[in-house]
Amino acid sequence: MTIDAVYDPGTAVHDASRTRSGHPVFVVAHGFTGAVDRPHVRRVAQAFARYGAVVTFSFRGHGASGGRSTVGDREVLDLAAAVRWAREFGHARVGTVGFSMGGSVVLRHAALHPRETDAVVSVSAPARWYYRGTAPMRRLHWLVTRPEGRIVGRYGFGTRIHHRDWDPVPLSPVEAVPRIAPTPLLIVHGEADGYFPLDHPRMLAAAAGDQGELWLEPGMGHAEHAAGDALLARIGEWVAGRAG
């Protein structure tokens, strides 16, 4: 199976005082129905390119990547492959930044593949699986679990979704978080998120304890679309400071 990916050396690599090995690379994990060529993913990549190199990629079943989406389960393998690819460009330090589904993936990747990443940022992620407490999440579950929903996903959103249920159920994000330490962890969530209410980021932060930071962003909605330029700049500075 192939994973579609793009490498951007970033603007800081042109600073003659720094070698590429000392230049961090951001690996961006998009949300469900995203892809490497989507405008909101490109905007995120451009923002982070001011602070380091950037690798963006499409998860399985999304965009030009092969396979079918497992909605956060086997996507951990896709992120692991992207991180390894990023290091092949000579970067000694890697920061992973995930949004929504990608936010849950970066947490599980850091827990299941220790020492592969040097800083982790999870934006708009769920804390637990099978959450249906909001209308957007009920629509998403219909999209994933119903044959007619998967047809809409394929032709309406360009996302090919696997028909099988999880077996076994993967480690949940809140179960993964305690295993991430001592890797620096940042949890970001919008106070106006329509998918996951604030008990999700608070559960994640509680599980992280002193090893994590929590930013609750006033007025922010959900994931990449809602992350403004100022927030992306703050995230870029945070990753560069921890993984740079």
From TrEMBL:
It comes from the Bacteria. Residues 24-125 form the AB hydrolase-1 domain. Belongs to the AB hydrolase superfamily. FUS2 hydrolase family. Pfam families: Abhydrolase_1. Keywords: Hydrolase. GO terms for molecular function: carboxylic ester hydrolase activity. This is Pimeloyl-ACP methyl ester carboxylesterase.
